[in-house]
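Q: I'm a student working through a structural biology exercise. My instructor gave each of us a protein and asked us to get a predicted structure, then write a short paragraph describing it. Mine is LamG domain-containing protein. I'm not confident about reading structure output yet, so if you can add a plain explanation after the C-alpha cells, that would really help. Here is the sequence I was given:
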Amino acid sequence: MPGRRNAAAYIAFTVDPGELRVYVDGQLRSTGNEFTDVFTASGDVFSLGSNWWDVPYRGLIDELHVYETVLDAAQVQALAQP
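A: Happy to help. First, here is the predicted structure for LamG domain-containing protein. I'll explain a few features afterward.
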C-alpha cells in the first residue's frame, strides 16, 4: 500500500453480486461494479497474491478469513478494531 511500509493494516474485500468494496482499517476506500464474481461455481479457484497481469504480492499475511456472507460496513469496522 502506498505510503505505508512496515506497518500492519486490516484490509477487507466484500463481493456482492458484481460489486466489490475495499476497506482499509475499517474505512471504505474503493468500490466498483465491474468485478467478475469468482465464487459462482464449486470448481472455481480462489488464490491470494497471484494473478497473470500483475506483480505477485510481497509481504506478510497474519490472518485470512473467508466468510459465506457479505459483511456490511459496521461488521468490517468492528473486525478492524485491535
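A: Here are two points you could use in your paragraph. The mean pLDDT is 79. The first strand starts at residue 11 and ends at 16. It's a good idea to check both against the output above yourself.
Q: Great, thank you!
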